[in-house]
Specification:
This protein is about 45% helix and about 10% strand. It has about 240 residues and is of the alpha/beta class. The chain is globular, with a radius of gyration of 18 Å.
């Protein structure tokens, strides 16, 4: 959808990305990833025998499990066992207060307004479902986890494949043409639009996001509300 044709009637559901959309890219790469890398050895030494950790380690190939995990970290590989172990490490950090989930200042208030206005909300991110829940449960703006109908990761498919968005909509019982997907990545938005969703690219200046010109654009969440006339227009949530 071109930049000048943002408004879409009948939006009842909002599906949002996290990194670069609700949350600074720097938080993931400069806070979460280094936190997990620094804590990895001590965490495995203390918890490797626990069933949840052992199950994740069993999926790591080779004899040198730690070496493989660190190689995946270095190369930013979205491997399931790595995401699971990172999530467990982050869980401890959030629980003891060393971590707080970053949100752009405009996000929390607008999410609450959308939900109060009747919109149903959900998340789709490449981070694990647990990592998503932890970020919103322990966010700088308080516990926002309960605002969302669901949290979805790449178990539903790759974010640049249309089938993933169709699968999530079907799982939630949402009509694609009543669903708005928010992301900073144009190729993800392309896939969502192919699946029948309305789309909007978040252009966060602090993250250096480049506008694609292929989708409606918004500088922040209040701008999304204005461009799509969201608050006060949604039907009652399912």
């Amino acid at each position: 959808m071109p930049h000048g044709e943002a408004r879409v009637a009948g939006i009842r559901h909002v599906l949002t990305d996290i990194e670069g959309t609700t949350t600074a890219i720097a938080f993931v790469h400069r806070t979460l990833f280094p936190f997990a890398a620094e804590a990895l050895d001590a965490f495995l030494a203390a918890h490797a025998a626990e069933p949840e950790v052992a199950a994740a380690l069993a999926e790591v190939p080779g004899e040198d499990k730690v070496g493989q995990l660190r190689a995946w970290m270095r190369d930013d590989v979205k491997a399931g066992p790595l995401k699971a172990i990172q999530g467990m490490i982050w869980r401890t950090g959030y629980a003891d207060g060393r971590l707080r989930g970053h949100l752009w200042p405009d996000v929390a208030a607008e999410l609450r307004r959308w939900r109060a206005g009747g919109l149903a909300l959900a998340v789709y991110s490449s981070g694990s479902e647990e990592a998503q829940r932890l970020l919103f449960r322990h966010s700088e703006a308080g516990d926002l986890e309960g605002l969302f109908a669901g949290f979805h990761d790449t178990r539903f498919g790759a974010k640049r494949e249309a089938a993933s968005y169709a699968r999530i909509a079907a799982y939630l019982g949402w009509r694609p043409d009543e669903t708005l997907f928010l992301s900073d990545i144009a190729e993800e938005l392309d896939a969502a639009r192919e699946a029948g969703l309305a789309t909007c690219q978040l252009i966060r200046a602090a993250d250096g996001t480049r506008a694609s010109g292929r989708h409606a654009e918004a500088a922040d969440f209040p701008d999304v509300s204005r461009r799509f006339a969201l608050v006060g227009t949604a039907a009652a949530a399912d």
